[in-house]
Amino acid sequence: MLIFFLLIFAIVPTAVFLTTALTAPDLLGYNQSQTFTFYGSVAGTFFSYYGLLITVFTLTEVRSLSRRYFFKMRSPDIRKDLDNISKEMSNLQSEPAQELKTMSFMSRLPSVVRLAKRLDNSDIKKISREVQKAYKSLKHESERADAVEKCGQVKDYWNVQQKVRELSEEIKIQNSDMMVK
Fold first, then answer.
1. Alpha carbon distance 131, 164 (integer Å)
2. Residue 96, beta-bridge partner list
């Protein structure tokens, strides 16, 4: 899409510059020294315009590369944290539900999900929002848990764990897709 716009922004001005350069000196009645100055002015405008186009293209490519670099550098750590949270949730399923608020994954999960959202990928952002919504529901349900209920019996406990695993797998898939590109 970007190349399409660059071609349009490159072809149309080229046609205008060439038409102007070939017809204007004769129409305006310039002498030979004025014609040379006019051609220099048209060439300078032409090269300035294309320099601007090349700069815009370079900036978009550098931005894309920096996003990709950020993703490749941060995604393994985020994925490892998500996997650890998922394992911890599996191990703590038989603990009393009233202790759910004091468990370490309950404090780590929101920050890890916020880091995942910063990876600038629409699929990851979508799943991250789902994890946040499920986490809020789990937090609300844990406040209402009774004394005999276990963590694994709290309404959204397994939903949060499933969403955390889904986010981890999505990061893995996106990372492998980037390696192919």
1. 6
2. 150
CB 107 within 8 A of CB 138: no
pLDDT along the chain (181 residues), means of 10: 67 70 61 66 80 86 88 91 92 84 88 90 92 91 78 86 94 82 59
Distance, in Å, from the CA atom of 160 to the CA atom of 155, rounded to the nearest integer, reads: 10
**How far is the C-alpha of 165 from the C-alpha of 70, rounded, in Å?**
22
Domain residue spans of the chain: 2-63, 68-180
Q: Is the dihedral of CA 8, 11, 15, 17 positive or negative?
A: positive
In this structure, the number of other CB atoms found within 10 A of the CB of residue 112 comes to 23
State pTM to two decimals: 0.70
- CA atoms of 14 and 49, how far apart (whole Å): 10
CA-to-CA distance for 130 and 54, rounded, in angstroms? 40
